[in-house]
Amino acid sequence: MDNNVILSVSLALVKKSVIAFMFNFRGVGGSQGSFGGGIAEQEDVAAALSWIISQPEADGNRVGLSGYSFGAAVALPVACADDRVGAVALISMPHGKSQISLLKGCPKPKLIICGTNDMIVPLDQVQLMNREAAEPKQFALVFGADHLWWGYEAVLAEKVATFFKQKL
Hints:
Layout: H1 4-15, H2 40-54, E1 64-68, H3 70-81, E2 87-91, H4 97-105, E3 110-115, H5 123-132, E4 137-142, H6 153-167
Parallel strand pairs: 1-2, 2-3, 3-4
């Protein structure tokens, strides 16, 4: 959670008066546990949702979920299955058959965003994900940005924050 992408998006959300909650998956940073192959990390997301919704300041009827890279691949199945999630932003999500299948069947508002120079997620794969995703969806390519988003944080963060402000 301590990277330029997550920090920039969180700051942009707060500037739009949206609560932002960041957390590390199990085994990352000071978190207990060990890597769970993306499955156990979905439990981490569900637990984080439960915690934030339990906070008196949070509106449990207006909850969005965002993930970056591996975090996007973990966030997608939770967002699609959990009725508490109203919208999902997927930042530089790696391509896979399970992601395509989930995108096809997920009726929630989705933002799929990637840089044109992403060295992990090829442009043709992110375009395929967009084509296959069910409506409602938004698709954004940021020209020149790579997977790490250095120098493009403000553009990315504004797109994600605006998406959530509009959809929730």
